[in-house]
Amino acid sequence: NLNADIFPESELIKAHKEWIGKPLCKDNVSNTIEGVRGVIVDTYYDPKFKRVHALFALDKKNYPELARKIEAGYAPNVSMGTGVGRSVCSDCANVATAAHEFCPHVRNRSCYGEINLDLAPIELSMVVVGADPRAQIRRIVAQVDQYRAEADRFPLGSLSRCRASAWRIECCQS
Asked: In the 3-class helix/strand/coil scheme, how is 33-84 assigned residue by residue?
């Protein structure tokens, strides 16, 4: 991605289900309740495109302006927030488990990339510009109060606990 973060396929496969139940945030603000706008309802790993797809519910009633921007296509980008257990420099293979262990290549962002291992998902955010230009909201699937017709195609047991004003939205992230 544009941040020079590398997420190996094996790590995405291991971690993708851990995003379920995590918050949907605005602009990667996940350290306070003020940044939360919804919840990640389901995820799946797409081996063909080597990407994680997420289905999330956005609280449309409390955040109508954000919902309108998404519906109009003005806010299509998403960004995954994850903790990283180990960071490996692609240039010198230095392994770091904390920032003070980063080599100069990773610290200065001069290497080809930082390989991220042992992912610990935190959140998914709607952002203006994401690190991965392909990580976008693909489509609004349905309003929750109208999702019954599509529920057979997208079986999500936890969706019934979402607010009736929320949306199910499919996005793609890697």
From this structure: HHHEEEEEEEEEEECCCCEEEEEEEEECCCCHHHHHHHHHCCCCEEEEEEEE
Q: Residue 2 carries which DSSP code?
A: T
Amino acid 124 reads: L
pLDDT in tens, 71-108: 888 888 899 999 999 999 999 999 999 999 999 999 99
Residue with tokens 């510009």: 129
- Alpha-carbon torsion 89, 95, 97, 98, what sign? negative
- pTM of the predicted protein model: 0.77
**CA 159 from centre of chain:** 18
- Of 69, 52, 59, which Cα lies nearest the Cα of 16? 52
